[in-house]
Backbone:
């Protein structure tokens, strides 16, 4: 239970509070509480002593004391309750219309309440006998100015100044009214009267004259006034100047900038006209064209946000952030710098940091239009389009008719994925034609995203027919064509865009498809230049960096390529976990694949094989890795293994084009020519613009052409022996896997005072029985007296990717020494060879041959060779070949008139050093140097040193033309005599 004492204390406390409130009300109204107890007569004391408005309202209706109502209205005005004071003042005026004070206060109160029209009307009805005090005139003039009745406002402000020359508010009102009326001469006279030493000391005449010159469109006069002003460092001049420049056209801004430069104005003033008129490229050119580096710390601080924005709009976000941070260091909380930081951080994807700035901005400047636009940009970049639309709605509520917000809101709806709805809004709002065009193109982009290519192309076609120079449509169509890999059309459009703008006017993202196309068409120099421009504008553009890597690889600039490939691979993360699911980073895989290609080009292929096997182990389901691994197997000389890997990759992903392209190459190599061509035809229908498919078609077409082959050799020994060999062949392909050929052979030799020549013609056919068996059959006959027929056959059996067994037999060998032929001797020839092909890096081969001469001499020979790669780095490749050769002749050398050692043996080591100057799909320039050394043994003559040095250039000019030229010097031994020989050979093949 409550104690009585405590209850009494609570009641006492409540009564005390009530008493205090009564006293406070009395004090507010300046009253004596004892007066409330007086009688109910209507008296001035009764009204003034009221503790509340309720008590005042109980004043009798028949009270006729206007002074009391006026006094109470004034009390309410002083308390800040203008709306509540209005009926009291109005009642006073009605009760005493002849009182000027009441009338004047009523008019002024109407002005303060924003009822400008009624105030002006009452002022016009005011009796002429009433005084026109400055206080009343100034307020009515303000009402006139607020309702844009500047003629009346200027007259009233002038009358006010006539009565009170020191009235600063009237002076500023008169200045603004005359400026609005365009009566600039009167403004100039006004400023002259109120200049230095005028009646109002606090008037900033320089600033007002600066504004006057801007209104008169005399920018250079305004600029001089600004710079000559005592307070020229005040940012108020800058804001007025920037607003003026922002209303100019590009040409006018350029004229002003040029004039400022001629006046030797600071760099920050020269660049500002371009920045204010959104000519950001030109503004940047002005900055970079300035003498010396940009010492922005010496610039006036209020210029720096404009400079930072220029860098931002030119995609140099890092420099922009650096400048904004400097501004914030100098002026903490600078609005322009914080807004700029929001844009920069969003561009960098650092949304949490941007949100911190937005939190400060929205708290301090909740209705600032720049802050609201930055907030909308933040939500758009985060993909929260509905939130962005809410912000645009707020801007339109606060700033009715803002065209930027209207357009941005409509565009955001389009980006949200409803371009048709955005189009309806745009038509309802009556927006410009350019917005409607953009919405059309947004819809085309949406169609393209969903694979509705034909619908997208209809829109592009419509827009480009209506306006062939529509920049957005052309750039969007460029991206569309690139995605569809329609490179011929991309190239045509790229060339048109570059010719119009020199490339400088294109955004970096539009340059990317152009660079891709030039690289695609084997123009890596041009592509590299464009990729470098993209990376200069956007240093972290992964696709441009990857394209640059492929360019460097194509240009065989291996060191740069390796550094870039490593940097790209190390920079990209493998992926990230979202919840319990891992999402891979496909850029990491793209960088890894590019590095693999680079390894295949610059290092032994077994390293590339190991590399791609490692990738396959990490991503076994990726068919692209399997496709490249199949290519590596093929390059290593294992076509069956390659076909198996490629088939697996193609079945994993039915859309894997690269695997199928490589499959056609490999099948053609294995003799499945029809299947290869059928597959290529299918690919060509599906990918009509793909370079690899087209190149494959070109290769198959070239293989099916007729061919002319010329082999010529010349050998000159210092023992006065010279020989020439010429073989010319034409062949054609009547059907797949079949080739018919005809040849002419001419041999000539001079030895001492004797000479001889040999001519022969032949015809034959070659046929490939699938991947394992290759057969060649020919018949030949001599001409010019040589009537001997010959039949030659050869078979080659390759059961797998490693073993090869071959056999050859010819009843009339063309390898018979010319000296023997001159003596009427001919021979037949048979040989058997066995080879094991480990890989492109290592192989071993053995061969046994028998020649039976018509003079009963039999020559048996055998050879074994082993080839081993040594190293490969970049364009250089080295390998060695060790060969042992032995031969036996059955007939005594002294009984024949040609060189015929009874038995001989040689062991040689040949080092091949190869340099690839250039290589592409159908062109190559390869230089090789062969250095051979060894020993030669001949029965009865002992052992002597032999060797040779040969230079070779292999030039594949196209798929149709191939030239190989060799020249060398050799040390040879015949019956113990050492001779030196010079020789050269030429191989030419031409398809037609």
Residues:
């Amino acid at each position: 239970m409550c104690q009585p004492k405590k209850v009494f204390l609570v009641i006492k406390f409540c009564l005390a509070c009530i008493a205090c409130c009564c006293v406070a009300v009395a004090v507010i109204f300046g009253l004596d509480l004892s007066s409330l107890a007086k009688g109910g007569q209507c008296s001035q004391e009764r009204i003034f002593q009221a503790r509340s408005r309720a008590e005042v309202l109980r004043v009798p209706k028949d009270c006729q004391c206007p002074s009391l109502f006026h006094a109470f209205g004034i009390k309410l005005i002083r308390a800040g309750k203008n709306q509540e004071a209005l009926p009291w003042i109005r009642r006073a005026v009605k009760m005493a219309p002849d009182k000027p004070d009441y009338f004047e206060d009523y008019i002024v109160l109407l002005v303060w309440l924003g009822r400008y029209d009624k105030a002006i009307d009452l002022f016009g009805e005011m009796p002429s006998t009433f005084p026109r005090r400055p206080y009343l005139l100034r307020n009515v003039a303000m009402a006139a100015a607020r309702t844009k009745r500047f003629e009346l406002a200027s007259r009233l402000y002038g009358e006010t100044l006539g009565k009170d020359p020191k009235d600063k508010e009237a002076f500023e009102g008169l200045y603004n009214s005359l400026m609005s009326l365009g009566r600039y001469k009167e403004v100039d006279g006004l400023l002259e009267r109120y200049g230095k030493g005028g009646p109002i000391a606090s008037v900033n005449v320089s600033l007002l004259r600066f504004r006057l010159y801007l209104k008169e469109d005399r920018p250079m006069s305004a600029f001089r006034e600004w710079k000559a002003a005592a307070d020229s460092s005040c940012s108020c001049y800058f804001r007025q100047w920037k607003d003026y420049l922002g209303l100019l056209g590009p040409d006018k801004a350029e004229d002003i900038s040029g004039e400022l430069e001629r006046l030797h104005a600071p760099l920050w003033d020269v660049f500002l006209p371009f920045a204010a008129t959104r000519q950001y490229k030109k503004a940047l050119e002005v900055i970079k064209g300035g003498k010396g580096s940009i010492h922005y710390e010496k610039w006036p601080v209020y210029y720096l946000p404009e400079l930072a924005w220029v860098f931002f709009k030119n995609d140099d976000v890092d420099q922009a952030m650096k400048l904004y941070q400097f501004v914030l260091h100098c002026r903490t909380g600078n609005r322009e710098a914080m807004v700029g930081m929001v844009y920069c951080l969003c561009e960098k994807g650092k949304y949490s940091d941007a949100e911190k700035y937005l939190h400060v901005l929205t708290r301090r400047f909740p209705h600032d239009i720049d802050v609201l636009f930055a907030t909308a940009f933040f939500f758009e970049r985060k993909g929260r389009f509905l939130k962005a639309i809410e912000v645009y709605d707020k801007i339109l509520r606060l700033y009715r008719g803002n065209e930027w917000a209207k357009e941005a809101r409509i565009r955001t709806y389009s980006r949200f994925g409803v371009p048709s709805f955005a189009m309806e809004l745009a038509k309802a709002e009556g927006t410009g034609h350019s917005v409607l065009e953009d919405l059309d193109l947004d819809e085309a982009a949406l169609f393209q995203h969903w694979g509705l290519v034909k619908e997208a192309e209809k829109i592009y076609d419509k827009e480009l027919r209506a306006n062939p120079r529509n920049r957005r449509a052309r750039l969007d169509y460029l991206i569309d064509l690139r995605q569809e890999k329609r490179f011929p059309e991309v190239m045509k459009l790229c060339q048109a865009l570059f010719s119009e703008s020199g490339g400088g006017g294109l955004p970096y993202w539009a340059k990317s498809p152009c660079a891709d196309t030039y690289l695609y068409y084997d123009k890596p120099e041009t592509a590299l230049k464009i990729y470098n421009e993209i990376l200069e504008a956007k240093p972290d553009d992964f696709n441009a960096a990857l394209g640059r890597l492929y360019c460097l690889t194509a240009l065989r600039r291996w060191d740069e390529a390796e550094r870039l490939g490593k940097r790209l691979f190390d920079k990209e993360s493998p992926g990230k976990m979202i919840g319990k699911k891992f999402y891979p980073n496909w850029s990491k895989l793209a960088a890894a694949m590019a590095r693999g290609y680079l390894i295949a080009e610059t290092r032994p292929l077994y390293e590339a094989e190991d590399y791609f096997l490692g990738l396959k182990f990490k991503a076994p389901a990726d068919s692209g890795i399997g496709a490249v691994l199949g290519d590596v197997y093929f390059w290593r000389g294992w076509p069956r293994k390659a076909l198996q890997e490629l088939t697996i990759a193609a079945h994993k992903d039915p859309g894997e084009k690269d695997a199928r392209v490589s499959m056609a190459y490999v099948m053609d190599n294995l003799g499945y020519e029809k299947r290869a061509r059928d597959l290529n035809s299918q690919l060509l229908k599906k990918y009509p613009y793909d370079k690899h498919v087209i190149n494959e078609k070109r290769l198959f077409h070239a293989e099916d052409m007729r061919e002319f082959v010329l082999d010529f050799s010349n050998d000159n020994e210092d023992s006065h022996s010279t020989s020439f060999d010429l073989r010319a062949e034409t062949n054609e392909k009547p059907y797949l896997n079949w080739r018919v050929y005809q040849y002419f052979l001419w041999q000539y030799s001079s030895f001492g005072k004797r000479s001889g020549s040999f001519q022969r013609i032949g015809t034959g056919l070659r046929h490939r029985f699938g991947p394992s068996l290759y057969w060649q059959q020919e018949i030949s006959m001599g001409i010019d007296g040589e009537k001997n027929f010959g039949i030659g056959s050869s078979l080659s059996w390759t059961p797998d990717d490693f073993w090869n067994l071959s056999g050859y037999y010819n009843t009339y060998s063309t390898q018979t020494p010319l000296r023997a032929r001159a003596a009427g001797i001919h021979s037949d020839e048979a040989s058997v060879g066995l080879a094991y092909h480990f890989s492109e890096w290592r192989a071993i081969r053995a061969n046994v041959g028998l020649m039976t001469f018509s003079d009963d001499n039999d020559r048996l020979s055998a050879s074994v060779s082993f080839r081993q790669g040594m190293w490969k780095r970049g364009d250089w490749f080295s390998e060695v070949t060790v060969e042992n050769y032995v031969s036996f002749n059955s007939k005594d050398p002294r009984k024949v008139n040609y060189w015929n050692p009874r038995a001989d043996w040689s062991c040689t080591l040949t080092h091949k050093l190869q340099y690839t100057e250039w290589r592409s799909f159908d062109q190559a320039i390869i230089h090789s140097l062969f250095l051979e050394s060894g020993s030669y043994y001949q029965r009865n003559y002992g052992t002597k040193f032999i060797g040779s040095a040969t230079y070779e250039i292999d030039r594949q000019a196209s798929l149709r033309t191939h030239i190989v030229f060799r020249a060398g010097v050799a040390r040879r031994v015949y019956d113990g005599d050492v001779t030196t020989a010079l020789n050269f050979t030429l191989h030419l093949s031409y398809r037609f």
